[in-house]
Amino acid sequence: MSSHILGIDLGGTKVLAAVLDAEGRILARARAKTRGWRDDEEVFRTIIQVGHRAIEHAGIAVDQLAAVGICAPGPIDFDTGYIIETANLKFKNFPLGPRTAEEFGRPTIVENDVNAGVYGELKAGVAQGARDVLGVFIGTGIGGGLIVNGALYRGSSTGAGEVGHIIVEAGGPRCGCGNRGCLEALASRTAITRDIRKAIKRGKRSSVAKLLTKETDLLSGKDLKAAYDSGDELVRNAVNRAARLAGIGIGSLLNVLGPEIVVLGGGVVEAFGDDFVGRIERSARDIAFEINSKKVKITRAELGDDAGVIGAAMLARESLEG
Ligand SMILES: [Zn+2]
């Protein structure tokens, strides 16, 4: 029986594909950049090509695949495999699951990328063996995923887990979702950059001023880390404030959910490492009730870029088992 699974992670800047064996080990990978695409068909063709390259690198034939799991940003209808909308890609109501199933001739599931990433960490990463997991991924935006009783929690609506859009400051800065004061509008890389840009406009000095000449310029995790380490006071304050606010959001969620482990990932967490995680942790524990703080482990994700493909592949495998 065919036992390999193809996992595909469709991101704002790249598409990553990997073939996993029956034990969940990655046999081969392939990737492509996703910038500058004209339309949804071009995005789709690239996804299929990268998938085929990973299959080729793994030295197997397509008919040795049992299933395909794809993860992508934005709201996804898990039941139909449609991508409803993506912020950075050209998809709108696109039948990604059905079209991919047709291309490879294999059952295909489509899952939200952060959900898949958290699921990957549960199955093969830092959250292995845990029952209740809260995943928070801090990058350009803030994504979240929940594992409850060992299973991905989508809620009755299927839209659960939007940790980035809990409101931490009523009437605060406008979020990409349209609301004000969301965690994402306060603690993401986009929010940190906005705060730094504003302060520079008010006359504050910073070593990153030269990187912010255009309104659309976004500081990278690397830029922020370098300025932080060099003692740039403006950057240090903005980053530390973001960590404190992320901790306030997470501490509130500890009280609601009582998880066993909080997994922190994403570009900002990867760039800043343990010191940033420590700040988030202190801020979260500060407001969580003792009963909800005592046993929870707050830690960094460990699979990096592989979390999404592994999670998507694992979910595809499990969908076969019904
Ligand atoms: Zn929001």
Written overview of the protein:
- With 322 residues, the chain is an alpha/beta fold.
- The chain has two domains: 4-119 and 305-320, Nucleotidyltransferase, domain 5; 128-300, 2-Layer Sandwich (Nucleotidyltransferase, domain 5).
- It is built from eleven helices and 13 strands.
- Strand 6 (82-85) and strand 7 form a beta hairpin.
- The longest helix has 25 residues, at 233-257.
- It is globular, with a radius of gyration of 20 Å.
- Residues 165, 175, 177, 179, 182, 184 line the site of zinc ion.
- CATH architectural grouping of the largest domain: 2-Layer Sandwich
Radius of gyration: 20 Å
Mean pLDDT: 94
Bound molecules: zinc ion
Text of the CATH class of the largest domain: Alpha Beta
The name CATH uses for the topology of the largest domain is Nucleotidyltransferase, domain 5
Outline the fold blueprint:
Blueprint: E1 4-10, E2 14-20, E3 26-33, H1 40-58, E4 65-72, E5 76-77, E6 82-85, E7 92-94, H2 96-104, E8 108-112, H3 113-124, E9 133-138, E10 142-148, E11 151-152, H4 184-187, H5 189-201, H6 221-229, H7 233-257, E12 261-265, H8 267-272, H9 274-287, H10 290-293, E13 297-300, H11 306-320
The structure holds zinc ion.
What are the salient characteristics of this protein?
single chain, five-stranded mixed sheet, Nucleotidyltransferase, domain 5, 2 domains, 322 residues, 13 strands, binds zinc ion, alpha/beta, 11 helices, globular
Compact overview of the structure:
The longest helix has 25 residues, at 233-257.
